[in-house]
Design goal:
CATH class: Alpha Beta
CATH superfamily: Glycoside hydrolase, family 3, N-terminal domain
Largest sheet: 8 strands, parallel, barrel
Strand order of the largest sheet: 1-2-3-6-7-9-11-12
Helix content: 40-55%
Number of strands: 12
Number of domains: 1
Order of helices and strands: EHEHEEEHHEHEEHHEEHEHHEHHHH
CATH architecture: Alpha-Beta Barrel
Shape: globular
Strand content: 5-15%
Distance between the termini: 31 Å
Radius of gyration: 19 Å
Length: about 350
Amino acid sequence: MRPSQSLLLGLSGPELTREEFALFRDVQPGGFILFTRNLVSASQTRQLTDSLRQLCDHTPFIAIDNEGGRVWRTSPFLPSPPSAQQLRTREDPRIIAEVGWATGQILALLGINLNLAPVLDIDHHPQAVNSLNGRCWGEGDQQVINHAGTFNRWQRRQGILGCAKHFPGGGQAQTDPHHALPVTSASIDELQRQDLVPYTALMPELDAIMVSHIHFSQIDDNNLPASLSRNIIQRLLRDRLGFDQHLVLTDDLDMGAIQQTYGTPEAARLAIEAGGDLVLLCHKFMEARNTLTSLEKLSHPILHDISCRLDKARGRLRTPPPYKEEQLVALASKISQLNQQFPPDSEDAESSTLSPVEDY
């Protein structure tokens, strides 16, 4: 396996530049991640994803963050469905299923095959500026299992892979990892009593898990964030919890939590050696060759295991359906109807300026 298969790269705009095309064609990354900056219209988005597939000699993962609420990358041309917080307040599994179904249908039409959702973080600190405002499915483990599980089940039935986040418990953070590295003293025993329960309960239905940029000081004594920690990825997630055959992703390595301490090449190597499969380079992706040079130091057994997991995940991908504008219009209408059942989410509105998470 080429080490470049462990790269999930961003793009600068709605069309590939000449430099990006040359880079991607040469490097052959494992996949791509799309943000609002890449999306102008539905037809343009589908043309973009088609072009990404055509330049790869394998089936690339094409990822997006379409959680609902304020984290909805397709907002330039589609209304966002209710947030996780709004949906958990209503406690109506039928509506959550409809949101998951519509999300999956939309992404399939757009040629996107991996949604970086659902959030499985427990809302420990509802008032904290930790980027999670409005995004959590519950303040307790069973609420998260019920609601996030329903959403994920229905998006997956549309052929979209789901990715749970932010392992092992992003809700423990009281600061925003986009700016600096959060630190928590939660132990494994404490996490197993609540934060890890949604992961273990839903694990048979999870295609991938994203690991957080949070330092768990009682678990890793090397001052490493979870995303770079072998104690957390290999020993806890893979060996202890049994998530050994599916994908593990880092959160964006361009976040302040990583950039203030590590360069991207070193962070990427540490993440893969810790047991990860894919590293996200969402903004400084044109420096991918520097990161690739670092990944070329990885051992053959590590690359072999990653290759097996990537192949298994790709085996679950479906060919995108033909693009039909009328189908997208109907889905947009469906989301608008769902939104009419909910009052404006004042908490989402107030928190929208507190984190870069919705501005990517």
